Amino acid sequence: MNGNKIELWHVPSPGSELSEKLEEMGLDANDLAARMGYTPKAVNDILQGNSRITPDVAIMLEMITEIPAIYWLRRQMSFDEFLSRERIKASLSDQSLWKKSFPSEINVREWVQYNKGDEKSLMPLLKFFAVASPQAWDGYYKDAKLKVAFRISLADVKDPYATSAWIRRGEILADRDPMEKQEQIPVRKRLKAALPEIIAFAAANKVRPKSKKRITYWTPEAEVVDDCMTGLQEICRKIGIRVLFVQNFKCAPIHGMYRWYKDVPLIQLHDRFEKRATMWFTFFHELAHVLYHGKKGICLQNIEITHNFPEKEDEANCFAQKCMVDAGFKM
Predict the structure, then answer these.
(1) Nearest-angstrom CA–CA distance, 108 and 24
(2) Residue 70's domain spans which residues?
(3) Into how many domains does the chain fold?
């Protein structure tokens, strides 16, 4: 950038290609102006890239150069896109501190996809969150605009950046495996009918399998899901509930979350609980929200956040404790 002007030494404008074509045809700007019925100044503006090639101009150029109008329009569109990208990159260059606010593990885990040369750019991170700017991220996640039926703000969370990354990762995983939209009452009926099966499954899976490799918050591998977790996902999917296991962050050790996402009840859990009992209690807690508390809300567990209805949290805890006892866990 040079002031408000973008230096385009490596990207030819459609006008420069038109100049080459005129030279090939043995014409100059005055000849082209006369053939188009334009003033020489108007044509020079096109040739120098100061004026865009409009559909009318593109059709005129087709008649004069025999190059299809769509070619000139596509070249103009590509050039416009390049200009816009450069302007946006320049506007984001002074906001690098925003990027540094997020945990570095999201890069190690490859949650954010960087192309060669994009390592310092904010755009891959913005694409991860599906927002257009850091200001838009603030509005969506910190200014009480997080899109759930009952909107919440992450502004008071200890680390809203890590928390938002964990929430967004769940959305991305959910989008990779779409489910049919669900209705609240039928889901509740199926859940009540399947609850004995879920409790029996929990009773049969009280202990987490031993792993030769230590699993920590910093492990870069994808979400760790064993047979128990996969089995739980399958049981819940038949009911119409999505269960996801997503690695959290040491700076934001969320255990679980309940929300409806794209008309599907979603229970999102940490994927590396040290104790299986903690996983089951968290799961049953979130399951209570599906059973009793409907679509109006989002609940995050093991993280400092003000819940709008603390009595619902107490009710979910009581439900989870009963299920744990029924499954044979010592409480």
Answers:
(1) 52
(2) 14-94
(3) 3
